Amino acid sequence: MKILAVCIGSAERLPGKSYKTGIYKHPVGGNVLVDAEGLVGDAICNRKHHGGADQAVYLEGSLTLDWWSKELGRPIEPGTFGENMVIDDLDNRMVSVGDRFIAGDLVLEVTSARIPCATFAARMGDPLFIKRYTQAARPGIYCRVLHGGAIAAGITVDYRPYDGEKVTMPEMIATFGKTLAAQDRSRYLAAPIHYKLRNILAVQAGT
């Protein structure tokens, strides 16, 4: 695998909206530094729901974007979904929590699936896109940064699957907001999931 594109954005106003968003991202050339909070220079406007240590970097696989291009009948260029990196030859459906992506000094660990929001739907120009994205079961991938580093398009990526019980991206988006069975909850909690989800599941478990 390799990095197909590195994307950053600035704060821009959505058409018809009063607030600014960092969802408009575009490929950049040269090296981009990634630290514990994500790509240096990338805009994150709503830090209540975006960014932070456990969703510092948002990935998309090129095979998934190719699928969306066919599904939507138009090219989906890198950055369209607000992702920071596009990884060549990656299918989002194959990714699980705890999987690691290593590019040079950068080490990323998968924490959760991307959950679509109203800003994403507005970006895509489709008020029904939240439902469509959820039903497609090919969500984007959020990662924490275990070790920072500089990245650029063309750098080789070493993909290392998690060796524990799997919690896949399709499963995460399908179970979002739902109460899990005890066995599934234990499996989720055994994986290095996003801290917010961990807190929710701990409440469900009564701990």
UniProtKB/TrEMBL annotation:
Domain MOSC as annotated: residue spans: 26-160
InterPro entries xrefs: Benzoxazolinone_Detox_Enz, MoCF_Sase_C, Pyrv_Knase-like_insert_dom_sf
Top-level taxon of origin: Bacteria
Span of the signal peptide: none
Pfam families: MOSC
Sample GO molecular function, one term: catalytic activity
Protein name: 6-N-hydroxylaminopurine resistance protein
Species of provenance: Rhizobium tibeticum
